C-alpha cells in the first residue's frame, strides 16, 4: 500500500503539463547503467498484514510491563506515564509539525518549548535550558564542546569521573576525537573512589570536570567543595543528573555547577529499547552564546501579543556553518513536549510522590537484600533509587538465575568495572511493588 | 500592553491544586536523606488534569501541521505520516523493553533492527549500515568521523580539507567544523551541477573527501555525478552523500552503485517518521566496503547461527575499527525504526519507486505551473524539489513576504533563503502525498500573490493577516533574551 493520491488520469495530465510522456522520462539525468535497480525487498503488505507482522515482532519480546519484573536502570528507567501524556502527543497538530521556523503558525510548539526550558531550569536550579539534545550522553558531549569553545581550545583537559555512566564517557570520547582533547580521571584504578580523588587532576589546563548525580553507582555526594576547587583553577563543571532524583535532592545548580545536563527519559518517555530519549542541557546565562542547540525566547508579535521565537540562531549551523557551536538541528521536540506534559500532569505534588515512592522502595529493597547471606549493599554513601549490590557470585550468574524466575535482576557492573564483577546495579521505581521486591529477595535466597 | 493569548503552564498554576496522583507507599518507610542533601523548594506548576489538557489543546491549535494542510518545505520532505505507524510504535512489546535486557528476551526488536539494516543496505547499495545516529546531523558527524578514521589508520594524516558545494546544507560544514577540519567551498555551474573545473583544482593529497547532496538543494541531480566521484576518488578522497534528499532516489538509483562511500538517511524525511515539531529524528548511516570496519558501535548482527530447528540469535557486534559510540544505547528504536520499518514493509520495492516517481512528478508539475510567473534560475527537469526567486523587478517584495502571505491561504511557506546561491530563494518540495487539486490551488495562490506583489505590496508586507499571530519581533527576543518563565513572584504568598 502507498499513500499516493494521484489517479492515473491526473498523472497523465500532469506529465503533459511537464512535457514528458512517462514517469520514467523524468529521470534522464541519472546514469543509465544504474537507473531503476531492482530492489530485493519483501513484497508490499497491506495495513492489516503490517499490523499483524509488527504485532508478532513486538510480542516475541519479553517486556517489563507485562511479562517480567525488572530492576534495570543504568541510564533508562521504567516509570508510570499518565494517560494524558500520550493523548496530547497523539494530536497531529504537535507530531506532524516541523521545526518552528515560521513562528506565526508554530506558536504551539514554540510556547511548549519555552515552557520546557522553564521546567528544566526550575528542576536543575539553573538559569537557562535549551530546547533539548538527542539524549543524556550527547548532552554531556555538548558540554565538552561548550567548555572547549569557552577556552577557545586553549585548555584541552577534561576530567571525567569514573562514576559517570560508561556510555556517556564513550560518547564524550567519540565526540572529542578531532579536537585533541585529553580525557582523564576514569582509569580503572580510580573506579570505586569518591569525587575527592579527582581533585589532584584538576589544574590550569583543565577545561571541564564531568560528574554524575547520583553517580553511576547510585551514590549521592554534595559536590560543592569539588566544584569550588575546579572553579579555583578556572575550570567549568558539568553534572549529569537524574531528573527523578532532582525532585527530592539538592540540585547541582545549588552546588555551583556550570552546566547540569541529563537524560529526561524518566519523565514520560517510554523505555522503547533505548530511544528516542530526551537530553536536557541547562547552564548559566553567561554561557548561553556558547551553548549548542535550539533556544526559544519570548517576544511580541505585530499585534502586541506575547509570543515566542527561536532566538540566538546566529550560533547555529544554518547561519554560521563551519563556525557553528554544533551541527545539531533536529532535536527531540516531541519528547520535550512529553516531558512537559508529564511534569504538568503530575504537578509538584505528584512528582514529589514519584520521588518518594522511588526512594522508599529502593531503600526497602536495599535493606532486605542487605540481610541476605553473601549479599551486601556495597557503598556506604547515601543513595536515591539505585544502588550497588555486592553478590556472592559473578553478577552474570545471578542475573541468569533471576531470569529463570521472571526477573531482570540489575545491571552487571563487571561489564565496565573490573573490580565489580560480583556487583549488580539495582534500580527501583514506583513500578516495583512490594511483591516484586519480595520476589527478588526470595529468588536470591536460593543462591 | 502585551496581550496574553494563552498563559504559560506556570501562570496557570494554583498552589495546592493536584493533578494525577500516585499510589501510596506500600513498603515500610525510611527516613529521608540528611537535610543538607535535600532541595529546599520545588518550584513546579500545580494543576488539575483538565487544566493540563485544555492548555496543551489550546497550544496545539496554534500549530500548522501536515495533518492540517500542504507543507511544501524544501529539503524537509513533509509527507503525510501514516496513522498505522503511530500504533505499531506503541505496541507494548516495543514500548516496555529496556535497552539493557538480555538479548534472548528482545529478539523481536533485534530482528527488526537487523532487517532494517539489510533493507537500508539494499535500498542504498551500501555494504554496511549503522542505525545508531539520532538524526541526520549526527549521522553526518558519524560519517565524517569514519572518513577521518579511514585516512588516519592508513597513516594518511595530512588530509584536512573537506570539499563542500556552495549549495550544501549548513550541517555539512558544521559537522566538519566539529572535527577541526577545513572547509573548501566548491561553486555550482550554471546548470546547478558541481563546477568540475573548480573541483578538479581543489582535489589534491590534502583532501579528506567531498560532502555532496545529490539531488542537491536546488533539486538538481548532478549531470556529471560519475565524473565528480571519480575526481574525488582520484585524489584519494572519500565521497559523502547527504541523504536528506533520498526521497527522490528510492528505486531510481542507489548512491552506493554510483560510488558514494558513505551517506546518512533521514528516516524522519524519507520514511515517514513524523517530525514532531522538531524531532526526534533518526539518522542511520550507510557505508561502502572501505568504511564498514569503522562504523559506530554497536551494530546488530547474528551472534549464533541458525540450526535446523533453532532460528539465529541476533545480538550486538562491534566493528573492528569502530569510531565508537554516538549516543547511549542502540539508536532511535521505538519512535524511529519501528515507524520506518512499518512504512517500508507496506511499500515494498515497487511502492518505494512510486514514492520517488510521484515526488518528482509533483515537483516538476508545480515548477511547470509557476515557470511563467516566477524566475527559476536553474530551469531543467528537477527532482523532488525546485528553487525559484521570490522577487519581482520594480517591486519591494521579498521571499519572506510571499511566505507570510501564503499563510493567509492556509499553506505552510516553502523554505526561505536557502540555498544561499539563489537570490530570495523559495525552495519548494511538494512530496508524493499531495494530490493535483492541492498543487493547483497552491500554484493559483502563488500566481495571485505575484500579482499582489505588483499591485498591493503592503498586503504582503503586513502578512500574515488571517492567522492567530502576526509577525514576530525577533530582534526584541534576541536583545532581551527572556528564555525562562518562572512562577509569579507572589506565588508563595498565595498558599
Q: What do these coordinates show?
A:
The complex is a heterodimer of chains A (447) and B (495). Chain A has helices at 8-18, 47-59, 83-89, 92-95, 107-124, 136-150, 166-176, 224-232, 243-246, 252-255, 317-320, 333-370, 395-403, 434-445, and strands at 69-70, 128-129, 157-160, 182-184, 206-213, 236-241, 259-263, 279-283, 296-300, 306-310, 376-377, 386-390, 407-408, 411-412, 423-427. Chain A is α/β, with parallel strands linked by helices. Chain A folds into 2 domains: 69-81 and 347-445, Aspartate Aminotransferase, domain 1 (Alpha-Beta Complex), CATH 3.90.1150.10; 84-341, Aspartate Aminotransferase, domain 2, CATH 3.40.640. In chain A, the strands form 4 sheets. A 7-stranded mixed beta sheet of chain A has the order 2-8-7-6-5-3-4, sandwiched between helices. A 4-stranded antiparallel beta sheet of chain A has the order 11-12-15-14, covered by helices on one side. A two-stranded parallel sheet of chain A has the order 1-13. The radius of gyration of chain A is 25 Å and the shape is globular. With 495 residues, chain B is an alpha/beta fold. Chain B has 2 domains: 86-345, Aspartate Aminotransferase, domain 2 (3-Layer(aba) Sandwich), CATH 3.40.640; 356-379 and 387-477, Aspartate Aminotransferase, domain 1 (Alpha-Beta Complex). Chain B has 14 helices and 12 strands. Chain B has helices at residues 49-61, 83-88, 92-95, 107-124, 136-153, 171-177, 196-202, 225-234, 255-258, 333-370, 399-407, 436-455, 457-461, 474-480; strands at residues 128-130, 161-165, 182-186, 207-213, 238-243, 262-265, 285-287, 299-304, 313-317, 386-389, 415-416, 425-428. In chain B, the strands form 3 sheets. In chain B, strands 1-7-6-5-4-2-3 form a 7-stranded mixed beta sheet, with helices on both faces. A 3-stranded antiparallel beta sheet of chain B has the order 10-12-11, covered by helices on one side. In chain B, helix 6 links the parallel strand 2 and strand 3. In chain B, helix 4 (107-124) runs parallel beside helix 10 (333-370) and helix 10 (333-370) crosses helix 12 (436-455). In chain B, 59% of the residues are buried. At the A-B interface, helix 1, helix 2, helix 3, helix 4 and helix 5 of A face helix 1, helix 2, helix 3, helix 4 and helix 5 of B.
Amino acid at each position: 500500500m502507498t499513500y499516493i493520491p494521484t489517479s492515473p488520469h491526473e498523472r497523465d495530465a500532469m506529465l503533459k503539463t511537464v512535457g514528458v510522456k512517462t514517469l520514467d522520462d523524468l529521470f534522464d539525468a541519472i546514469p543509465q547503467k544504474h537507473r531503476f535497480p531492482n530492489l530485493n525487498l519483501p513484497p508490499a503488505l497491506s495495513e492489516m498484514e503490517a499490523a499483524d507482522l509488527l504485532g508478532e515482532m513486538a510480542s516475541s519480546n519479553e517486556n517489563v510491563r507485562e511479562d517480567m519484573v525488572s530492576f534495570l536502570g543504568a541510564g533508562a528507567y521504567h516509570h508510570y506515564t499518565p494517560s494524558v501524556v500520550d493523548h496530547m502527543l497523539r494530536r497531529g497538530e504537535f507530531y506532524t509539525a516541523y521545526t518552528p521556523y515560521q513562528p506565526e503558525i508554530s506558536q504551539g510548539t514554540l510556547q511548549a518549548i519555552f515552557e520546557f526550558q522553564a521546567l528544566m531550569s526550575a528542576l536543575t536550579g539553573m538559569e537557562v535550558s535549551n530546547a533539548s539534545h538527542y539524549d543524556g550522553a550527547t548532552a554531556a558531549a555538548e558540554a565538552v564542546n561548550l567548555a572547549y569553545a569557552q577556552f577557545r581550545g586553549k585548555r584541552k583537559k577534561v576530567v571525567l569521573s569514573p562514576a559517570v555512566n560508561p556510555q556517556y564517557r564513550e560518547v564524550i570520547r567519540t565526540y572529542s576525537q578531532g579536537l585533541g582533547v585529553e580525557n582523564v580521571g576514569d582509569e580503572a584504578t580510580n573506579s570505586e573512589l569518591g569525587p575527592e580523588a579527582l581533585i589532584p587532576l584538576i589544574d590550569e589546563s583543565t577545561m571541564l570536570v564531568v560528574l554524575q548525580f547520583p553517580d553511576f553507582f547510585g551514590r549521592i555526594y554534595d559536590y560543592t567543595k569539588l566544584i569550588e576547587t575546579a572553579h579555583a583553577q578556572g575550570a567549568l563543571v558539568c553534572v549529569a543528573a537524574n531528573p527523578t532524583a532532582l525532585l527530592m535532592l539538592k540540585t547541582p545548580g545549588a552546588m555551583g555547577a556550570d552546566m547540569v545536563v541529563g537524560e529526561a527519559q524518566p519523565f514520560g518517555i517510554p523505555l522503547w529499547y533505548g530511544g528516542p530519549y530526551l537530553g536536557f542541557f541547562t547552564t548559566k546565562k553567561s554561557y548561553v552564546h556558547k551553548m549548542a542547540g535550539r533556544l526559544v525566547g519570548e517576544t511580541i508579535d505585530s499585534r502586541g501579543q506575547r509570543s515566542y521565537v527561536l532566538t540566538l540562531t546566529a550560533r547555529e549551523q544554518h547561519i554560521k556553518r563551519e563556525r557553528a557551536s554544533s551541527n545539531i538541528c533536529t532535536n527531540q521536540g516531541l519528547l520535550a513536549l512529553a516531558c512537559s506534559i508529564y511534569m504538568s500532569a503530575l504537578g509538584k505534588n505528584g512528582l514529589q510522590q514519584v520521588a518518594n515512592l522511588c526512594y522508599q522502595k529502593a531503600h526497602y529493597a536495599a535493606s532486605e537484600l542487605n540481610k541476605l547471606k553473601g549479599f551486601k549493599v556495597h557503598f556506604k554513601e547515601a543513595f536515591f533509587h539505585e544502588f550497588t549490590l555486592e553478590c556472592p557470585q559473578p553478577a552474570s550468574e545471578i542475573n541468569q538465575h533471576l531470569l529463570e524466575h521472571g526477573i531482570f535482576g540489575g545491571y552487571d557492573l563487571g561489564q565496565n568495572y573490573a573490580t565489580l564483577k560480583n556487583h549488580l546495579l539495582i534500580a527501583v521505581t514506583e513500578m516495583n511493588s512490594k511483591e516484586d521486591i519480595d520476589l527478588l529477595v526470595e529468588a536470591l535466597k536460593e543462591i | 500592553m502585551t496581550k496574553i493569548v494563552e498563559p504559560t503552564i506556570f501562570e496557570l498554576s494554583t498552589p495546592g491544586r493536584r493533578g494525577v496522583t500516585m499510589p501510596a507507599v506500600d513498603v515500610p518507610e525510611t527516613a529521608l536523606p540528611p537535610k543538607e542533601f535535600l532541595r529546599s523548594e520545588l518550584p513546579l506548576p500545580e494543576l488539575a488534569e483538565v487544566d493540563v489538557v485544555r492548555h496543551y489543546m489550546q497550544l496545539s491549535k496554534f500549530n500548522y501541521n501536515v495533518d492540517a494542510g500542504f507543507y511544501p518545505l524544501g529539503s524537509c520532505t513533509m509527507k503525510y505520516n501514516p496513522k498505522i505507524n503511530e500504533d505499531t510504535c506503541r505496541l507494548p512489546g516495543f514500548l516496555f523493553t529496556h535497552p539493557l535486557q538480555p538479548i534472548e528476551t528482545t529478539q523481536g526488536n533485534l530482528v527488526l533492527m537487523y532487517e532494517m539494516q539489510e533493507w537500508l543496505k539494499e535500498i542504498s547499495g551500501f555494504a554496511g549500515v549503522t542505525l545508531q545516529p539520532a538524526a541526520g546531523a549526527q549521522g553526518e558527524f558519524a560519517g565524517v568521523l569514519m572518513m577521518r578514521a579511514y585516512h588516519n589508520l592508513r597513516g594518511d594524516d595530512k588530509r584536512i580539507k573537506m570539499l563542500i558545494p556552495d549549495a550544501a546544507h549548513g550541517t555539512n560544514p558544521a559537522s566538519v567544523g566539529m572535527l577541526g577540519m577545513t572547509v573548501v567551498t566548491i561553486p555550482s555551474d550554471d546548470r546547478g551541477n558541481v563546477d568540475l573545473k573548480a573541483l578538479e583544482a581543489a582535489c589534491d593529497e590534502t583532501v579528506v573527501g567531498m560532502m555532496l547532496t545529490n539531488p542537491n538543494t536546488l533539486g538538481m541531480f548532478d549531470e556529471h555525478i560519475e565524473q565528480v566521484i571519480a575526481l574525488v576518488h582520484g585524489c584519494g578522497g572519500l565521497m559523502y552523500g547527504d541523504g536528506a534528499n533520498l526521497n527522490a532516489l528510492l528505486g531510481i538509483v542507489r548512491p552506493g552503485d554510483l560510488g558514494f562511500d558513505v551517506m546518512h538517511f533521514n528516516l524522519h524525511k524519507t520514511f515517514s517518521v513524523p517530525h514532531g515539531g522538531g524531532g526526534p529524528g533518526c539518522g542511520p548511516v550507510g557505508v561502502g566496503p572501505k568504511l564498514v570496519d569503522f562504523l559506530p558501535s554497536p551494530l546488530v548482527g547474528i551472534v549464533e547461527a541458525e540450526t535446523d530447528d533453532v532460528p539465529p540469535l541476533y545480538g550486538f557486534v562491534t566493528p573492528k575499527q569502530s569510531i565508537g559510540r554516538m549516543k547511549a544505547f542502540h539508536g532511535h528504536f521505538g519512535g524511529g525504526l519501528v515507524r520506518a520499518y512499518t512504512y517500508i514493509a507496506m511499500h515494498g520495492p515497487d511502492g518505494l519507486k512510486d514514492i520517488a516517481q510521484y515526488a518528482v512528478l509533483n515537483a516538476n508539475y508545480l515548477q511547470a505551473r509557476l515557470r511563467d510567473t516566477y524566475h527559476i534560475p536553474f530551469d531543467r527537469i528537477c527532482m523532488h524539489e525546485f528553487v525559484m526567486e521570490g522577487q519581482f523587478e520594480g517591486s519591494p517584495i521579498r521571499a519572506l513576504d510571499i511566505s507570510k502571505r501564503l499563510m493567509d491561504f492556509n499553506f505552510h511557506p516553502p523554505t526561505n533563503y536557502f540555498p544561499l546561491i539563489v537570490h530570495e530563494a523559495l525552495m519548494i518540495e511538494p512530496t508524493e502525498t499531495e494530490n493535483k487539486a492541492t498543487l493547483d490551488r497552491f500554484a493559483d495562490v502563488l500566481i495571485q500573490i505575484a500579482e499582489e506583489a505588483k499591485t498591493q505590496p503592503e498586503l504582503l508586507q503586513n502578512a500574515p493577516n488571517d492567522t492567530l499571530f502576526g509577525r514576530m519581533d525577533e530582534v526584541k527576543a534576541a536583545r532581551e533574551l527572556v528564555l525562562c518563565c518562572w512562577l509569579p513572584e507572589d506565588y508563595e504568598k498565595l498558599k
